[in-house]
Fold:
Amino acid sequence: MATASTGEPVLRKLEELRARYEAIGEEMNRPEVAGDVQRIVALNKEHGKLRRMMEPYEAYRKAVALVAESQAILDDPAADPDLKALAREELGLAASQAAALMEEMKAALVTGEDAAVSSVILEIRAGTGGEEAALFAGNLRDMYQRYCDRHGFSVEVMDASPSDLGGFKEIILNVKGEGVYRHLGYEGGGHRVQRVPITEAQGRIHTSAATVAVLPEPEDIEIAIDWEKDVVEHVSRAGGPGGQNVNKVSSAIRLEHLPTGITVSMRDEKSQHKNRAKARRVLMSRLYDHMMQSQRSQRDANWRTMIGSGDRSERIRTYNFPQNRCTDHRINLDLYYLDRIMDGELEELIAALQKHDLEQRLRNL
Structure:
C-alpha cells in the first residue's frame, strides 16, 4: 500500500478534496443556487472533475476497511478456522486493490492539472545554423505532426515563416487532443542536430539548433487582460510570398503586452481579423504559461535541477544522424533509432520523461 513518504500527504489531500466534493453537492441542492445558471454550471463542472478522483478514493476506503476487518478476524483467537481462511484470502485481495488504487490516485493528483489540458500552442523556431537550422525546424515539425497523427491529435498551422530551401524560420501550431499536454509538454527547450547538411559539399558534419516552446491552452483561461490599456497593436503588411494581397493590404498583426513585455506576431492569414484572433489566442496562452510558471516555480525547482528548466535557450536533446542516435540530456537517455523517432515514434522517449517527472513530483508531496 502507500508508503509513509507519500501515502500520508496524499491521504490528507484526498480528504480535503472529499470535503470540497461534499460541500459542492450540498451547495448545488440549495434552491437559490439551483436558480443561478452561471453558478450551477461552474459547480457542476468542478463537481465532475472531483468525481473522477472521488470514485477511486471511495473504492480505496472500502478496500482499506476490508483489510482492517479481515485483519481483526485473523487476530481473533476465537474466530472460526474457516472464517480465518476466508479473511486471509480477502486480506490479500483487498490489500492489493488498495495499493493499486493509491498509485492511481497519486499519479492523478500530481499530473491531473497537466492531463486536463487538451490544447497546446507549439512554437518551433530555427536557431543557430542558418538554412540548415531552418531545415531542422521543418524536420521537427514533421516529427511532431507524425506523432500527433499516431495519437489522433489534430494539428492546425497558426503561422509560418518558410525558408528558401523548404524549412521554417518559425512555425506555430495549435495541437488539440485529450491529454495532449502530457504528451508534448516535455518538448520545450533547445534541440540540437548533428548531421551533414544538404548544403555541405565536403561531407562535413555540422551542428545546428532549433528551439521549441509548448504553451498550454486550457478551455478556461482565467486571465484578465485589458486589451485597450495593456496591449499595443501594430498593423503592417505581411510581406513575403503571397501575391498582391500580401503586398498591398495591411493584414499582419503584432501584439505587445505591456505589463510583461510578451509579444506575438501573426501574418499567416490574409484577413486582418483572423490574424488578430489567432494572435490573441497565442498571447493568452503565453500569458497563461507565464502565470503558471510563476505559481509552480517552487514545485518545479527540483525537477528543473534534475532535467533542466525547459527554457528555450537550454539544450534538452541532441539528434545525431551519423550515429542514428537521439539523446535526451535531462534524463541521460540514449536511443539508437533516430530514423524512427524522426518518423514520429516518440513513445519510449516521452514515457521515460513522464515516469521521471512523476517520481520527482511524488517525492515533493
Observations:
- The first strand starts at residue 119 and ends at 126.
- The radius of gyration is 26 Å.
- Confidence is low (pLDDT under 50) at residues 1-6, 240-247, 298-313.
